[in-house]
Amino acid sequence: MGRRSSTAVTGVARDDSDDELGIDDHPWEWVYRQAQTPDSATKRKRNDQHDIIGARMGTFECYIGDCVLLKAEGSNEAWVAIVAGFRETDDDGDKAANFLWFSTEKEIRNSDRKRKDFLPNELYITPSSDVNPLASINGRAVVMSQHEFLRRYPNSKVPRSSPGYNKTFICRRGCNTRTSTYTDEFVWEDVYSNKEDIDDLLELVQSNTRSTRKRKHDAPLEADYVATRPGQDDDYYSDDAVRRTVTTPRKRQKQTRVVTPSNRRVVVKKALEFTPLATRTLSPSYHQASPFQIARAQLHVASVPSSLPCRESEFSLVYSHLEAAITDGSGACIYISGTPGTGKTATVREVVSKLDEAVRSDELDDFIFVEINGMKITDPHQSYAMLWEALKGQRVSPSQALDLLEREFNNPSPRRVPCVVLMDELDQLVTKNQSVMYNFFNWPGLRHSRLIVLAVANTMDLPERTLSNKISSRLGLTRITFPGYNHEQLMKIIQSRLEGVPGNIVEPDAVQFASRKVAAVSGDARRALDICRRAVELAEADVRSTEPDPATPSKRARARAKGGEAEKPKNPKGKVTISTVKRAINEATTSPLQQYLRALPFASKLVLASLLVRNERTGLPDSTYGDIMEEMNRALIIDAGSRRVSLLKRTAKRSSRADVTTRRGESMLVRPAGISTAAVDLTGAGIIILEGQRAERPSKIRLAVGDEEIKLAFRDDPEIRALGITF
Fold first, then answer.
1. Longest C-alpha distance within the chain, in Å?
2. Does the pLDDT value for residue 228 go beyond 70?
3. Together in a domain, 638 and 564
4. DSSP letter string over 251-310?
5. Of 193, 217, 241, which closes a domain?
6. Is a pLDDT exceeding 90 seen at residue 216?
7. What is the predicted pLDDT for the residue at 658?
8. Residues 415 and 458 in one domain
């Protein structure tokens, strides 16, 4: 390892037996450069970090250029690094050092490009470095070449009684763990002997492990080598094994790489895993499909567009925050809010895809991405297990995952890869004590967590409503709001989907009409796409109904053909017009569910309207029956001048024995008549979910249908509007 003698530049005696840390109670002390003269020693400032060449704790000492072990809480892997420099204080005010990291083969995530001839205790020197406190140092490590290892340990094993047991490693290659590229094999003692070789070693690794997209001459892939791996660990270090591991390139196949138009190699990397959506698979005859089929496919909400129009500013904002957090290696929490259908999730996914492209082109550090959708997990606590599996690849229970994550984020984090977590449908991850939301908002602020949380919700103030003001005020959320689309933006979105559709089957006036209708209600782009898609289906059905079947022509068609009279189609142009869009909107508003909701009695409408108002007020999908009662009473008191005052009845009966407090509370104990029955009936119809199907104040209650369905049904209802409730 090229350790310096006790008289070299330090002026502090060193002993090779000092390989263990001293007592933890001893504070860390700096070792400064030896002064040339007593006068220069008095003039030199002791806090100059350039004069710091080592650190001491008790009898343990380490210097720049030493290989050290670092603490790896909850991990059995060796964390080995070279001390590249010291810092007087880090961001938290602790004594720290900059470490140049070694890597094990387990940390190379791209299994397709990973070498298969690694040794059990082999490490790869990497170009990665970061700053960690001196408290994370756990002793010295010994790194050597394979030949030197065999010379010291002829039996190819380090005895348990040896001081170097579990501290001795072999290094014969450098590796960029992000791109899974390796240097040529070298002899460790030839490339590194002391601290003066750190810069040369780093240049060697960086110049030979750059991304294959930037290298003019590509190094052979692992698949281009023929290497024999012994079956037993004991044979790894034999002389025959040494000769076998010197690999030779074999003849390349004709097609060994993916070629792009620019004739550059594409780095094969595992694609980011998104939460799967219900996507449609186009048939092979897609290009021969009719214009109606192409339009329907491109207007489908599950269709992934090539770009996201009208969200350029939000895209840039999310991208800049994410890129800065990944580059700085810091944690961050970004809260994204907006009504449904405003492109929140689609924008975040597009940002992550662009960042992944930057990683592939070696322009950004690697990161892990995991998506947690509150609508697709049965218990919010399962998000812990999903995050831990994304970080470590291990499946554990939610309770175990919580303990492991707490330990992971509260301990020093050498070599930790940034993790981006998309928490979609955050409203569904609300728990009784809000522990899930608090933990995911709190972890990014912990030291070295490198956790970046993107929380997506439909309400702007969900953290304030679910968490106490004291907690929410110190979370440090970065807030980005996605406003609802206006009609011009909706027109641009629909027209972008219709680009390339032959025949111009959708008239611009029809697109404008649909956009204005949706923008007046919610600004939901998904609803606008659904309406236009249904209009295309109706237009296609009209065209088909007017075309006779050529195989079996009807007698009437044959008679008309003989008489020279042609049957006129209902829609000769076969285009989507304003009338077609009106029919599609009428279908949406005259569906069986809409008809059922409009025909409900006033008590049932009052329950649904109050539940919807409560959800919008709190931002939570769940409420209690008692909360809904308060909303109903508030609405009925506002409308005290109408006939609905008669629906209030007193639930407390006067009694001669009743005290003054009971009589005073009689005016407050009011309940709309028939509400309990209405709530139970709505539960039986599948409109709401009522806990235990009992209309009791503590019973949980929530909508079983979409909010838009309720808003659409009651938007023009005179009884609901008389209560002052508008949607």
1. 122
2. no
3. no
4. PPPS--S-B-TT--BPP--PPPPPPP--PPPPPTTGGGS-HHHHHHHHHSTT---SS-TT
5. 217
6. no
7. 43
8. yes
Whether the Cβ atoms of residue 71 and residue 412 lie closer than 8 Å to each other: yes
Q: Number of folded domains in the chain?
A: 4
Mean pLDDT of 450-459: 90
Query: 3-class SS at 315?
Result: helix
> Which of the given ranges, 260-269, 328-337, 716-725, has the highest pLDDT on average?
328-337
Domain presence at residue 279: no
User: What is the CATH classification number for the domain harbouring 559?
Assistant: 1.10.8
Is the domain of 330 the same as that of 435? Answer: yes
Domain with 76 in it: what CATH number?
Answer: 2.30.30.490
Q: Which of 589, 614, 639 is the last residue of a domain?
A: 589
Residues pairing with 256 in the sheet: none
Beta carbons of 329 and 130 less than 8 angstroms apart: yes
Q: How far is the C-alpha of 727 from the C-alpha of 714, rounded, in Å?
A: 8
Q: Which two tokens stand for residue 431?
A: 């728990």
The tokens for 320 are 């800049």
What tens digit of pLDDT does each residue of 544-583 get?
877 655 555 555 555 455 554 444 444 446 789 999 999 9
Distance (Å, whole) CA 603 – CA 672: 8
Residues 6+ apart with CB under 8 A from 327: 364, 365
Same-domain status, 189 and 67: yes
Backbone angles phi, psi at 314, to 5 degrees: -65, -40
Exposed/middle/buried for residue 48 (C-beta within 10 Å: 0-12, 13-18, 19+): exposed
What gap in Å lies between CA 491 and CA 659, rounded to an integer?
66
Contact assessment for residue 389 and residue 300, using Cβ atoms and an 8 Å cutoff:
no
Structural domain that includes position 127: 29-217
Which whole-number Å values give the CA distances from 20 to 68, 94, 140, 193, in the listed order?
11, 21, 7, 22
pLDDT digits over 662-681, tens only? 444 444 434 455 788 889 88
CATH number at residue 336: 3.40.50.300
Rg of the chain on CA atoms, in Å: 35
Listed in sequence order, the DSSP H helices in 621-706 are 625-638, 660-664, 675-684
For the ranges 139-153, 236-250, 344-358, 452-466, the lowest mean pLDDT is seen at: 236-250
Residue 514's closest CA among 570, 593, 583, 571?
583
Residue 23: inside a domain? no
d(CA 403, CA 401): 5
Nearest to 209 by CA among 189, 240, 184: 184
Could you tell me if 577 and 625 lie in one domain? Answer: no
Mean per-residue pLDDT over the chain, rounded: 76
Token pair listed for 335: 């809260």
pTM of the full structure = 0.64
